[in-house]
Amino acid sequence: MTRCENVWVAAEDASDYAALVAVARDLGACATAVWMGDEQGLDAVRESGAGAVIHLAGGALVEDGAQVLAQLAAERTPDALLVAPTKRMRLLGACVAARRGACVMSDATSLSVDEEGALRAERMVYGGGAVTVERGVSAFVVAVPCAALLASKAAEAASAPGAAGDAGVPCAVETFAVQPGSSGIRLVERRAREVDAVNLSAARNIVSVGRGFAAEEDLALAYELARAVGAEVGCTRPVAEGSKWMARERYIGVSGAMLTPNLFIAVGVSGQVQHMVGATGAKVVVAINKDKGAPVFKQADFGIVGDLYDVVPRLVAELER
Amino acid sequence: MNTVACYKVVADAQDIVANDDRTLRFDKASYVLGEYDLNAIEEAVRVASDTEGRAVLLSAGDARLSDSKLRKAALSRGAAEQFCVVDEGMARADALQTAAVLAAALQRIGFDLAFFGEGSADAYGQQTGALVGALLGVTVVNAVSSVRVDGDAVVVERSLEGEVEVLELAAPAVISVTSDANLPRIPQLKDILAAGKKPSTTWTVDELGAACAPCVEVTSMLAPQSVARKQVMYEGDVDEAVRSLAADIKAAK
Fold this sequence. Notes:
- The complex is a heterodimer.
- Chain A is of the alpha/beta class.
- Chain A has two domains: 6-177, HUPs (Rossmann fold, 3-Layer(aba) Sandwich); 200-320, TPP-binding domain (Rossmann fold), CATH 3.40.50.
- Chain A has nine helices and 16 strands.
- The model of chain A has no long low-confidence stretch (mean pLDDT 91).
- Chain B has a single domain, classed as 3-Layer(aba) Sandwich (Rossmann fold).
- In chain B, α3 packs across α4 (128-136).
- The longest helix of chain B has 15 residues, at 95-109.
- Chain B is globular.
- The termini of chain B are far apart.
- The chains are: A alpha/beta, B alpha/beta.
- The interface between A and B is large, with 86 and 81 residues.
- β8 (130-136) of chain A pairs antiparallel with β14 (216-222) of chain B.
């Protein structure tokens, strides 16, 4: 890459465009919005601050649009495509990338343009155990800004409405037809998924549960502590994925939530980097673990070496005194 | 249906040591099958067995792939045969270079369904399956939490952020499965012994004619900036420790 001036952005949700356009603008690029949804969403996307909209219409599924989008990218040679960090957009981004001889810079915690004009992304690898800097060297790249980066851009845009340039002014739309079914995928059924509505990234205090809990019913202890502190409850990945004691939405760590609470209380958590990386932004970290040598204590401000089954009830009583 | 499961051999993240200057040491690291790839292997084996097909394995990597322990670790999970693309350059390959190699190998092997995990255990870019499917020009889908084959019809459930889709796929297809798709088996000793007798084929990137130019380069890899914590530990008398900790919590919340 030797320039990053013309950037396309794509999302499933019209409300994600303002933040994606802001990311493109920070790169010094002019943003073109690619919209594959309905007419109502189109109006919102037109007012997101993008310079133009490419509307891919008529596809039964977002996936059907990948081929047309790749074809348009071949003709119009944008320097980059930024997509929102959702499953569907990751697939779309990768399909366009492959057809354009590129790959995806996934989950960028920051994006910039280096002195040679190449897109530069920072991201975490090895489950948070390492941070890499990547740069695009092909003529075109796809990047996925991480959810936290988009959320911070959305907050900036909301606090300074004038800063988003042409936001609020509808821009021009070009519409291209998509052949339904061209992806080889046929939609049989779509149903709402039961999603745990917890928003850990907005929580002021967090109690995080690890494998130190022996049984699912013992989690009541963690909920009692959370109630005494005024905290939300989150967990490590094995608790969410292995034991399935909690919903995925409650799992904290590199591919889960990244948090910035006042207080993070790790209970029965060993302290693996893959989990604790989610607590890097916490003001104060507290650990309760019976193993004195557990790595969590090195990453905590205050800790008790003790059996959580003994310590937590006493702590709750003391906090409620 | 004939299935292929793709997997990656990765350094175990727990064994990576951070030096004081944030550089990383991999010399103590053991190498393992990517944990998300185990779901791909399990699903490929299950679907093949349910449909009287054959499941095989495919991986691309450096010489470590030829390690007999790692080969057995992969083949002890039910697949009949293994194909490896071994090339020193693979350790530095970006996702598209890897995908080009896997796509070329898949073309040679032939398949009805190719399975990937949701992401590699090291980079977790969540893209290789999608890149491979797009390069091959076949049906490709990610975030699949269940697969059902009924005659020629392949029906999958896909767990997205707020909804579940039921999709019918035209084969051949490339499918990335989530860790909800199945519970990977724990191979028994007899499986590991039997794995040593299964056929294994090794190709180079040149033999596949699959070399392509890099599109992303990694310019640095360092340990995350650590946050200095107070590391005050209360031990001994539990009541006293609890009182101290409660005071700290009240001050912080």
